Amino acid sequence: MYAISAKNLTKSYDGKTNALNDLTLTVPQGSVFGFLGPNGAGKTTTVKLFTGLLKPTQGECTVLDLHPVKNPCDVHRVCGVMTETARMYGQLTGLQNLLFFAQTAGMSRDAGSERAAELLKQLDLWDARDKKLSDYSTGMAQRLSLARALVNRPQVLFLDEPTSGLDPESAQTVNSMIAALADNTGTTVFLCTHQLRYAQDICDSYGIIDKGRLIAGGNLEALCNDIGYRVKAAFRLSEGDSLDGFDADNGWWQAELPREEDMPKLLKKVIESGHDVFEARLIKPTLEDVYFGYVEHRGVAQ
Amino acid sequence: MKLLSSAEQAVVNKDFGEIWNTKMARNTIIVVPLIMVLFLPVMYLVMIVFIPSEQMNGIDQMMKLLPKEAAYFSVKQGMFYIMTNVVCPMFFLMIPLMASSVSAASSFVGEKERSTIQTLLLTPLSLKSIFKAKVLSCVFLSGITTAISFVVFACVISAGDIFLHMPFFLNWNWLILVLLLAPGITVFGVVFMVLVSGRSKSYMESVQTSGYIVLPLVLLFVGQFTGLFQLNALILLIIAAALLAVDLLLWLVAARSFTPEKLLR
After folding, report:
1. Of the candidates A53, A89, A105, which has its C-beta nearest B260's C-beta?
2. Rounded to a whole number, what is the distance in Å from the CA of B134 to chain A's nearest CA?
3. How far apart are the C-alpha atoms of A34 and A47, rounded to whole Å?
4. Which of A3, B47, B122, B130 could form a disulfide with A188 if both were Cys (CB 3.0 to 4.6 A apart)?
5. What is the per-residue pLDDT for A70?
6. B7 touches chain A (CB under 8 A)
7. How far apart are CA A102 and CA A122, in angstroms?
8. Helix (H, G, I), strand (E, B) or coil at A87
9. DSSP A23-76
10. Among candidate residues A56, A41, A46, the one with its CA nearest the CA of residue A25
11. Where in chain A are all domains bearing CATH 3.40.50.300?
12. Phi, psi at A27, each rounded to 5°
């Protein structure tokens, strides 16, 4: 069963331009899906459609086979949502905020207190539990929002820029938590982010969206293959030496490999042909390379 | 059957705290009743007692407003009767109107302004439950304010009645005002604000809009001084019935307009 699915999902706010255009995607249960795109690409609109805050203009979507338009409460019962625009109550303390949202999720006071304490400790907010949210720093408020999204032990988690505004340490904590959630509890994560390095560390598959259209989807390998990005072999040779069919780049001689498995054979060949190899390495395309490749490619195509 | 589930109760408690923490709402809920049921009636009473009747202007015109059953009152008694039955009802009804509209502005528009409404809409609570809990918290808060105000008002006016040797002030008019019109106005203030909340961008803007609903109330009571009409129990009963019908209609319209798309616009 897919945890999240969308078919021809379209949303227009003004009836003229589509903020989201014909989105079709599926996210398997227990996976971490990175939804990537520039500002205004339609990421937040997609999250709002999946969580029933918006009604689609066309198409449909489901979360664990539940329809967000028909059964928004059921969808909210099984999912946690963290978006930049969904804030918490400034006059309540961190703990009171979590207790309130635990209660609205139907948890008893005791169960809510226990869960709130667990999350506050995990997110390093326990010492600030009795501080009013209005006195929290941006990073602390962001972590509390994540705690709020997790309070009802969601099966599906929608996270819209969860690490924006966080210092690297906090971002690391949040990312580790997201990865652990998927690994240990089978939570499906739909992660909208700009932070491609973090996304590469924790996501299983990706969707790249630009101007409301999904321009690519799949795991990193599939994305690389689709755009024609390959693994490169790179060798550092003695000064003045060169390799035929290789490009020089900052003291390294590089060439694309059809497959990663071809590297040992190529290395052997280079050594056997009499070159002194000081260093050899495989350069894999990063998510950042692939993402910019797709965005540029789309720009050129347009 | 429980009126509110524990989740709805949590929303009500949270809203009480939030309204109380909104300085303007808190000040309105405290200061308006103090002025309307304590300061103004006491000032008026002191004025009636201490200023000689011959120094007051327009006494004859005022005395014409007295109904037949109060025709035997002295000038001072008559002035106090007019204050109690013509002027004070308007002051008194300002309380549920202002209390309900400022609390609803804080609860609905304030929540939208602070971007917390989206978070609330993402909870497993249904829209109906959120709407019900929010409306009830405003109605309840306004109801308590009105009830306490009436007790204070009754004490002030009773003291005046004793001092001026007049019969107890409570009559059919006041019973209809307190038991029907005040609750009707409370609900009206809240649902009106819910309807406005979709268009208002800020708490202040919505509070300013509530000024429009004060106007008909003032005209209704001040209009009596023109001599064209006089509000009696029957007219008040008809107004109350019409208001309750309007409330029901507006409640239905407001509940239908309470959708995420409108609230997050």
Report:
1. A53
2. 13
3. 12
4. A3
5. 93
6. yes
7. 17
8. coil
9. EEEEEETT-EEEEE--TTSSHHHHHHHHTTSS--SEEEEEETTB-TTT-HHHHH
10. A46
11. 2-225
12. -125, 120
Q: Does A134 lie at the interface with B, CB-CB under 8 angstroms?
A: no
Q: How far is B249 from chain A (nearest CA, A)?
A: 25
- The Cα–Cα gap between A86 and A101 comes to 13
Q: Confirm if B106 and B194 have CB atoms less than 8 A apart.
A: no
Look-up of token digits 């979507």: A61
Quick: pLDDT tens for A221-263.
899 988 888 899 999 998 888 888 899 988 899 998 888 899 9
Rounded to a whole number of angstroms, the distance from the CA of A202 to the nearest CA of chain B is: 25
| Residue A73 backbone dihedrals phi, psi, to 5 degrees | -65, -40
Residue A25 backbone class (left: φ over 0; alpha: ψ -120 to 50; beta: rest): beta
Supply A50's token pair. 């999946």
SS (H, E, C) chain B: CCCCCHHHHHHHHHHHHHHHHCHHHHHHHHHHHHHHHHHHHHHHHHHHHHCCHHHCCCHHHHHCCCCHHHCCCCHHHHHHHHHHHHHHHHHHHHHHHHHHHHHHHHHHHHHHHCCCHHHHHCCCCCHHHHHHHHHHHHHHHHHHHHHHHHHHHHHHHHHHHHHCCCCCCCCHHHHHHHHHHHHHHHHHHHHHHHHHHCCCCCHHHHHHHCHHHHHHHHHHHHHHHHCCCCCCHHHHHHHHHHHHHHHHHHHHHHHHHCCHHHHCC
Residue B1 lies in a domain: no
Token readout for A1 is: 């069963």
**How many domains are there within chain B?**
1
Q: Can you tell me which residue has the tokens 């109690």? A: B84
Q: Using alpha carbons, list the distances in angstroms from residue A66 to A4, A52, B47, B57, B182.
A: 9, 11, 69, 74, 44
Does the ipTM surpass 0.95? no
- Full pLDDT tens readout for chain B, 265 residues: 678 899 999 999 999 999 998 888 899 999 999 999 999 999 988 988 888 777 777 777 777 777 777 778 888 888 888 889 888 998 899 999 999 999 999 999 889 888 899 999 999 999 999 999 999 999 999 999 999 999 999 999 999 999 888 888 888 989 999 999 999 999 999 999 888 877 777 888 888 887 788 888 888 877 777 777 777 889 899 999 999 999 999 999 999 888 888 888 7
**Confidence at residue B22, expressed as pLDDT on a 0 to 100 scale:** 87
Q: For the sheet containing A213-218, what is the strand order?
A: A79-82, A156-160, A188-193, A32-36, A205-210, A213-218
| Range(s) of the domain holding residue B146 | 6-263
Query: Does residue A76 belong to the interface with chain B, where contact is any CB pair within 8 Å?
Result: yes
Residues of B with Cβ-Cβ distance to A77 under 8 angstroms: 124
Per the domain annotation, does B36 fall within a domain? yes
Identify the CATH class of A2-225: alpha beta
pLDDT number for residue A301: 62
**What are the Cα distances from residue B249, in Å, to A211, A239, B109, B243?**
43, 87, 21, 10
Chain A residues near residue B106 by CB distance under 8 angstroms: none
Determine the 3-state secondary structure of A10 from DSSP: strand
